[in-house]
Specification:
It is elongated and about 140 Å long. Helix 10 (466-477) crosses helix 11. By secondary structure, the chain is of the alpha/beta class.
């Protein structure tokens, strides 16, 4: 209490005494007991009121004993159950948390970990059904709670982590961790498909790579058979030999994509030895095979070497097919994806008319036989003012071209292309990949360019004798491939059509059982602006039993989403519908039967020992738990801390003082009333 506060209290005493003396004793004719009592009551009431005005700060000091924290962490993933340690884990947790001597020394708090690390209070929370082991969450969670205190942790786990970063280095080095190993530590012979890496998509009639990691745990040399099946057919087989010195192998295979759609494959490793856990001998994965075949209609009314070169170059990609047509035979465009118009003239008018409804992307190549007046009427990408004089145009590569990835294959050394001399004026939005030059002088005009208008794409090459370019590449590179790849990128660009849709749904074609399964969607209004007021729902159908479920998609930032994490393995179809406009999108996916928590036959002793070494802790098996408890109780590094806690409270917060002043004034009034002094 400060000196000023003491002075104010002294003045309050004097003021209260003076006022009570003046009111009762100074004017009193006799000093009866009643007068003295009334004066005393008035003194206390006035002094109490002045105390409230002064409002001194009252300091109270108490001593508290703070026990060191002890975090008891239980691995709640399903791998504990698969290893037969569920009941053992519960018993050890109860034994630790109910030990009275540990309770006297430590402040015990329990946590369980699977996909998250959370605190719990009774064994009803221990379900051992977690779909993943995120042991890397334990260290940061506990440290954030106790970072200013000396603490220890005991972790009941098998040490098998299935997701996240390395849990060993998630613990602070000065944070002792005592690991109790859950599961049978006896080493059994075990073959395991550890990991499968494969692309999600493959192209029809192509091959796609698969990388498989196979692990072995055993004490003898073992001959095994590795295979990959697609349905009942074996698409890959290889003999593998393992030994105590060769415990892991990587298999790289190229598989054919001979069927369209989602193709499911089974990877298997087998031997003549009997294994305790055969579930991890196989693993499934899926690849969606995409039909990227492109039908190109090459239309020309003249014979020219370029036609053969174009057909051969485009069809060097097995996904492309070129059909040569005359303009009069090209009225039915139903089966084609791209129109390649070679030196169009007025006879191509029927082709343009037929394409008005089909809106196929076009690739136009001009030359000495082109009718540029007709071409000006039929397209708006470029305007031509050409003479009857022929000119040789060489190519100049534009490194700033950005529509798709390209590279300079030596265009400046290519033979010139022939085209009538004249002026070319292109519209806005045109992007040239090659510019023309006459001998050493650049014209600034495009030679090969691309444009897009209202979702319809087109490309244009101004010059004939393209066959000379392909021949030049072969002479220079001993291969047609650089030229063919460059032309194929043009065809690929024209084969794609990214017309905007009002309802865009994002989903995978397959999911592993236990992995997060989320479908997201975006809905756009007529101006292609994201609509945050849309009402989206999804109808899900299990293809095996035709059971239907319906969910609403919830708005999250700039998209809608739904979580379907609890689906059983199988094939599903779904329809996402916007209820206000009835716009819909239909799709399908497959949930693969793969439980990563069933992959283990033993606890991971090596990593648990590494954890103990990193934190200067120890590793125990369940029958050593009593020794661990005694050791921890006797550990001098964990002692209770005595802390002084000072509580400051202003007097105005004392409610009873206000009540006492009220009672004193009421008592004074009652006595005066009773004695007829009012």
């Amino acid at each position: 209490m400060t000196t000023n506060t003491v002075l104010w209290l002294v003045l309050a005493l004097l003021a209260a005494g003076g006022l009570s003396y003046y009111h009762y004793i100074y004017k009193a004719k006799t000093l009866s007991l009643t007068v003295k009592v009334l004066a005393f009551l008035r003194f206390l009431a006035i002094f109490g009121f002045l105390l409230l005005l002064i409002n001194p700060i009252i300091r109270r000091s108490t001593l508290q004993i703070q026990k060191p924290p002890l975090a008891v962490v239980v691995d709640n993933s399903s791998s504990i159950k698969e290893l037969g340690a569920k009941e053992t884990s519960k018993e050890i947790w109860k034994k630790i948390t109910s030990n009275s001597r540990l309770q006297d020394k430590f402040d015990i708090q329990s946590f369980h970990v699977d996909t998250e690390c959370r605190s719990f209070f009774d064994d009803s929370s221990l379900t051992y059904q977690g779909k993943a082991s995120r042991l890397d969450l334990v260290g940061p969670t506990v440290h954030n709670l106790y970072k200013n205190l000396p603490y220890a942790s005991i972790v009941l786990t098998d040490g098998n982590q299935t997701s996240g970063s390395d849990y060993v280095f998630g613990f602070q080095p000065d944070h002792k961790v005592f690991a109790v190993v859950m599961g049978d530590t006896t080493q059994y012979l075990d073959l395991r498909i550890a990991k499968v890496n494969a692309n999600k998509y493959a192209f029809y009639k192509n091959q796609f790579p698969v990388e498989v990691f196979v692990n072995y745990n055993g004490t003898k040399t073992l001959q095994t058979t590795f295979s990959i099946r697609n349905g009942a057919a074996v698409v890959y087989r290889q003999a593998l030999t393992f030994s105590p010195d060769k415990r892991a192998q990587v298999v790289n295979a190229l598989l054919p994509a001979n069927a369209l759609g989602v193709q499911t494959y089974a990877v298997n490793i087998s031997s003549n030895e009997k294994e305790k856990n055969s579930y991890n001998n196989s693993q499934r994965f899926a690849v969606e095979v995409i039909d990227q075949r492109t039908e190109v209609a090459l239309i020309s009314e003249i014979e020219h070497p370029d036609l053969g070169v174009l057909k051969r170059s485009i069809e060097s990609n097995a996904q492309r097919k070129v059909t040569l047509l005359k303009p009069q035979n090209a009225s039915d465009l139903q089966k084609y994806n791209i129109l390649l118009l070679y030196q169009p003239t007025a006879r191509f008018r029927s082709v343009w008319e037929a394409n008005k409804n089909r809106r196929l992307n076009t690739f136009i190549i001009t030359g000495n036989h082109t009718d540029f007046g007709f071409l000006n009427q039929m397209q708006k990408a470029a305007t031509f003012k050409m003479s009857n004089q022929k000119e040789d145009y060489q190519a100049l590569y534009r490194s700033d071209f950005s529509i798709f990835a390209t590279e300079d294959i030596g265009f400046d050394q290519f033979p010139p292309l022939e085209n009538p001399f004249g002026n070319v004026t292109v519209s806005s939005g045109v992007q040239p990949v090659l510019e023309s030059r006459i001998r050493t002088i650049g014209t600034g005009d495009p030679l090969w360019f691309f444009t897009e208008n209202e979702g319809q794409r087109s490309a244009m090459l101004l010059g004939e004798n393209l066959w000379k370019w392909r021949a030049h590449v072969f002479v220079a590179k001993q291969s047609f491939e650089p030229f063919d790849q460059f032309l194929d990128k043009t065809i690929q660009y024209l084969a794609s059509n990214d017309a905007r849709k009002s309802l865009v749904v994002n989903h995978e074609r397959f999911y592993n059982s236990g992995d997060p399964l989320e479908i997201t969607a975006q809905f756009f209004n007529k101006n292609y602006e994201f609509d945050a007021k849309a009402r989206l729902s999804i109808t899900l159908v299990n293809k095996q039993n035709q059971q239907k479920k319906q969910y609403d998609l919830l708005l999250s930032n700039q998209y809608y989403k739904v979580d379907l994490d609890d689906l059983t393995p199988g094939k599903y179809s779904f329809t996402v519908r916007e209820l206000n406009t009835n716009t819909s999108y239909s799709g399908a996916f497959e949930v693969l039967d793969f439980n990563i928590e069933k992959q283990f036959v033993n606890p991971n002793m090596d990593q648990l020992k590494q954890l103990a070494q990193h934190t200067q802790g120890a590793v125990f098996v369940p029958n050593q738990i009593d020794q661990w408890i005694e050791k921890l109780i006797a550990d001098p590094n964990y002692q209770p801390i005595q802390k002084e806690q000072v509580v400051k409270s202003p007097l105005i917060e004392w409610t009873w003082l206000l009540l006492m002043i009220t009672a004193l004034l009421a008592a004074e009034w009652f006595i005066r009333k009773y004695n007829g002094m009012l």
